[in-house]
Amino acid sequence: MAIFTGADILLPKNADYEKWAVIACDQFTSQPEYWEEVSKVVGDAPSTLHMILPEVLLPGTDEQIAAIHKTMADYLASGVFAEYKDSYIYVERTLLDGNIRKGLMGALDLEKYDYHPEADARVRATEATVQERIPPRMRVRRGAPLEMPHVLMLCDDQKKTIIEPLGAEKENMEKVYDFSLCAGGGKIQGWLLSRELTAKVNAALAAYEQEKVPMTYAVGDGNHSLATAKACYEELKKNNPNSDLSNHPARFALVELENIHDEAQQFAPIHRVIAKTNPDGLLAYLAKVCTGEEICPIPWFSGSEQGVLQLGIQPGQLPLAALQQALDAYLAENEGQIDYIHGDDVVKQLASEEGSLGFLVPGIEKNQFFQSIVTDGILPRKTFSMGHAQEKRYYLEARKIL
Hints:
Layout: E1 4-5, E2 7-12, H1 17-20, E3 22-23, H2 32-42, H3 62-77, E4 81-87, E5 89-94, E6 100-109, E7 113-114, E8 123-124, H4 134-141, E9 146-147, E10 152-155, E11 174-180, E12 187-192, H5 195-209, E13 217-221, H6 223-239, E14 252-259, E15 267-269, E16 271-275, H7 279-289, E17 294-302, E18 305-313, H8 319-333, E19 337-341, H9 344-351, E20 357-359, H10 369-376, E21 384-386, E22 394-395, E23 399-400
Parallel strand pairs: 7-8, 8-13, 10-14
Antiparallel strand pairs: 1-6, 2-4, 3-22, 5-6, 5-12, 6-14, 9-23, 10-13, 11-12, 15-21, 16-19, 16-20, 17-18, 17-20
Helix pairs in contact: 4-6, 7-8
């Protein structure tokens, strides 16, 4: 069976798309005012906002989760959606710098995906999965009739045979959406592939998936959401040991496939801010324990002060891996709360608060991305971001999972 295939995709028929689509729930977790403003803009209009639980609100109450499931059921019952059976949608996302990031919406077979560190699956996580983060998300997905994806899946298609050829075929496809995303998210356009183009994509995917490589796809963003989908599917199998679930909709997850070799792909670093800590004590600890042979300068900010941590790393070691290991060790024995932040300015703003310390970490080279996962295993959690926070995937398409 193919790993990535067409899906039964749902799109709203008559909704105001700028109110319908909202950014991934795991963004702006330290800025609740962002979600408050989006809520004001959306109001009572049909929106994916009413079908998600922003992580700033996790773990969520039973009442909140029940309301989400009811909204999904109401939207399905009232004819909000049009359904496109066994389809792909070609996506062009205009980013803040004007570059266009290309993608393909389809379904990923969760049987081929494993997020555990030792996994040798065809589809793997790229960053460490925090097991404690999965159960609260399972509470939201368990019993939900729909999923709205924000997972970005990466392929290593150096020859650009799968997604890129679709850009020249847009006149042969039906445009299904074209609008500006709310809260400064840029612009997005989507085209429904014709049957002829679907056949061509299926052939290109088959050729790519048959290549003899250890890893075919890697999660670029949304790993905890995909891990939650996997956990819910495994739970379904455990509870139904005698049922044939080979074609059950919960076996698959709707994702956007992107090519790591797309020129618009930018891997932005995810910085660290530690709040409610002793900044001087933490800096002294890091200077003492990070004494590797190579030196990597890490700018830091605390209150009105700033400086550079001369981070010692081992040859070939990812700087963030050394920093994260040291931070984890310190926070296991000392006070402090770590957060993962997109954007230099946000780091400086949060680090200006009393008892806070922020670090600007370097990025990762995408050309070595797939091989580094195969060779060294998954990266430290929150190593990179595919673009800035506003450039993350917005909830837009949906799919039935019950």
